[in-house]
Each structure stands twice: as structure tokens, then as C-alpha cells.
Specification:
Elements: E1 2-10, E2 21-30, E3 33-34, E4 39-42, H1 53-57, H2 61-64, H3 70-81, E5 85-88, H4 91-105, E6 117-120, H5 121-128, H6 136-143, H7 155-169, H8 181-186, H9 208-225, H10 229-234
């Protein structure tokens, strides 16, 4: 599966008021692991920053003066996200700005969702943590993701942090220890030959590395949930007799 963690920085909070995208940052995940093939562009807007927006990003019009306009990178950007699943925190905000940029570049570009599906991590977080703060910083603290280097908002930095948050939010499968995807593909498959139904069943044992990865995964689950389902399988809970009526 090809997923792209996406974030933008803008000159203000509403594209309908003429604000523009000034930075796009994307991190590509292949089978839920960073591929190293990222997309990052600063963009020159044709408007000023709203009060407060410049302080949040640290960007200035002077810095952006020699950067390309969105229409200069639109084809490259769309080719990069084409067919992927986009992971975005508060997706309505970023999609609104990007769809506006696409319409300004030409009606033939359509919308972002014409080219990619979208998963909103804000909605995922609200389902998992109803009634709690689910900003990116709050999720980092809750899920144990290090964001101490996030002094200012930056699209690529926030996309990198969101990648860690997304993995942790969706069960932390990066900790299972599958190893490098390409290396796993390159290794020859081991096929177990099943014995006839009347014979002894084959016994397949986990390697020491697999057992260690399993133990680490269980410990993570115990820390997050207090107990892992595996514990119930190997140590059934004591039966509690019903009190007499």
C-alpha cells in the first residue's frame, strides 16, 4: 500500500478570503514504512500573510520571493500523489486550500480526491479519544511521539511527525518487527509441507528474533491498555461466582 502523509502551510486560515498555500510537505509510506521519497516545496503566494500566520510558520514574503508558484509545480505534485492514500490531519483545511490552488491553475486539474483517497487522522483521533484534545501536539504527548524539535509549524516537519502519530494511532504496527519490506520480498519463501490428515501435524516454531518481537509488542500493548489479549489466552481469568440474590 502506498500512503502519503501530507501537510500544508498557508498565509491564513481561509482560502475563501484569498489566502494561499506557501508550503507543501509530503512523506511517502510503503507498507507503512517511510520510503525516503518525500515531496517538499516552498511556494510564492501573490498575497500577504494574515496577522499571526507568519509567526506560526516563520516564513516571510522575502524568503518566498524566489520560490515557484503553485502552477509551476502542480504537475509534479499531482504525479507524486496520484493513486495514493493521503493521510492528513484536519483534512478539510488542507483539501480546501489545495483544491482552490488547483482551480486557480486550471479547471482541468479537478480536485485532489479525483486522484487520491483521503484519511483524516483528526477524525480517527476523535473516534478513539472522544471529548479530548486531538491536535497534533496533544496526540504526540498522548501517544509518546517526540515533537520536541517542533518549534515552528513546517509542512515537511509536521508531515514527518504525523507519520509517527498515524502509525501509533492505528495500532503501532511498525513495532511488530517485520523488517525492511524490500529485504523481505527478496528472501525466498519458506513453504511448509502439510502431512496427510492421518499423520502427525507439522510443528512450526517461532525463531528467537520473532519471539523477541512478539514479547516487545505485548509489552507495548500492556502499557497502552493494561493487558494484552494474549494474556487472557495463556492465563484465563479466574471465575467469579455470582453472589446469591
Amino acid at each position: 500500500m502506498r500512503q502519503i502523509i501530507l501537510d500544508t502551510e498557508t498565509t491564513g486560515l481561509e482560502w475563501k478570503k484569498g489566502n494561499r498555500v506557501v508550503e507543501i510537505g509530503c512523506v511517502e509510506l510503503l507498507e507503512r514504512r517511510p520510503s525516503g521519497r518525500n515531496f517538499h516545496r516552498y511556494l510564492k503566494p501573490d498575497c500577504d500573510f494574515e496577522p499571526g500566520a507568519q509567526e506560526v510558520t516563520g516564513l516571510t514574503l522575502e524568503f518566498l520571493a524566489d520560490k515557484p508558484a503553485f502552477e509551476d509545480v502542480v504537475d509534479e505534485f499531482l504525479a507524486y500523489i496520484d493513486g495514493a492514500e493521503l493521510i492528513i490531519h484536519n483534512a478539510a483545511f488542507d483539501l480546501g486550500f489545495l483544491d482552490n490552488e488547483l482551480s486557480r491553475a486550471g479547471s482541468h486539474y479537478g480536485r485532489i480526491t479525483d486522484r487520491a483517497s483521503v484519511v483524516d487522522t483528526l477524525l480517527l483521533a476523535r473516534e478513539r479519544y472522544p471529548g479530548q484534545r486531538n491536535s497534533l501536539d496533544a496526540l504526540c504527548k498522548r501517544l509518546g511521539v517526540d515533537n520536541s524539535h517542533r518549534q515552528l509549524h513546517g509542512a515537511l516537519l509536521d508531515a514527518q511527525i504525523l507519520a509517527d502519530v498515524y502509525i501509533a494511532l492505528t495500532s503501532g504496527q511498525e513495532e511488530i518487527g517485520f523488517g525492511d519490506v524490500q529485504a523481505a520480498i527478496a528472501r525466498p519463501a519458506t513453504v511448509a509441507t502439510l502431512a496427510p490428515a492421518s499423520g502427525a501435524r507439522p510443528r512450526i516454531s517461532a525463531s528467537a528474533e520473532e519471539a523477541a518481537a512478539h514479547a516487545r509488542r505485548l509489552e507495548t500493548l500492556r502499557k497502552k491498555a493494561g493487558r494484552a489479549a494474549w494474556d487472557l489466552a495463556v492465563e484465563p481469568p479466574a471465575m467469579v461466582e455470582a453472589e446469591p440474590a
